[in-house]
Amino acid sequence: MKVGDVLPELAIPVTRTLIVATALASRDFQDVHHDPALAAERGSPDIFMNILTTNGLVDRFVTAWAGPAAVVKKIKIKLGVPNYPGDTMTLRGSVTAVNSGQVSVEVVGANERGAHVTGLVIVQVP
Questions:
Q1: Residue 82 and residue 32: Cα distance in Å, rounded?
Q2: CA distance linking residue 20 with residue 8, whole number of Å
Q3: In the 3-class helix/strand/coil scheme, how is the chain assigned residue by residue?
Q4: Sign of dihedral through CA atoms 49, 50, 56, 62?
Q5: pLDDT bucket at 28, cuts 50 / 70 / 90
Q6: CA distance 124 to 110
Q7: Given a cut of 90, is residue 32 above it in pLDDT?
Q8: Mean pLDDT value of segment 109-118
Q9: How far apart are CA 92 and CA 12, in angstroms?
Q10: Could you read off the pLDDT of 68-88 as tens digits, one per residue?
Q11: Which of 19, 25, 79, 116 is least buried, going by the fewest C-beta atoms within 10 A?
Q12: Going from the N-terminus, what domains does the chain have, and what CATH number goes with each?
């Protein structure tokens, strides 16, 4: 692993089931993640993915590339546009630093409207 390495892209179809199931699995019972009518009342065109799901997908993306022995040391993400049912979020990443077995990866996950998530993941690799 070296600075400039590019991770293989990961395209994730954002389904209604994915949004609802992962919100419930992360114990996020906010209605905007499972009730379209209440999401609309709050100004959203539909339900949308929660940040805990996004965080988990970013983790999965980097650790799938880094290997089973990799240990996530830090994830710092910022949300942008929402992920709605029917979107496809494509995750991309590149190595920005390697220091004593710690690898820094910049990540962007984008859908049809723009960047859903941007951030930095630091993994310790053997």
A1: 11
A2: 27
A3: CCCCCECCCEEEECCHHHHHHHHHHCCCCCHHHCCHHHHHHCCCCCCCCCHHHHHHHHHHHHHHHHCCCCEEEEEEEEECCCCCCCCEEEEEEEEEEEECCEEEEEEEEEECCEEEEEEEEEEECC
A4: positive
A5: confident
A6: 26
A7: no
A8: 98
A9: 11
A10: 999 999 999 999 999 999 999
A11: 25
A12: 10-124 (3.10.129.10)
Residue 62 to residue 70: CA distance in whole angstroms: 9
- Give the residue among 89, 91, 79 at the shortest CA–CA distance from 112: 89
- Can you name the residues that pair with 104 across neighbouring β-strands? 97, 122
- Could you tell me the two tokens for 106? 């910049």
The more confident residue out of 28 and 16 is 16
d(CA 16, CA 84): 8
Q: Report the half-sphere exposure of 21 (CA within 13 A, side-chain side).
A: 6
CA distance 8 to 36: 33
Q: How many residues are given for the chain?
A: 126
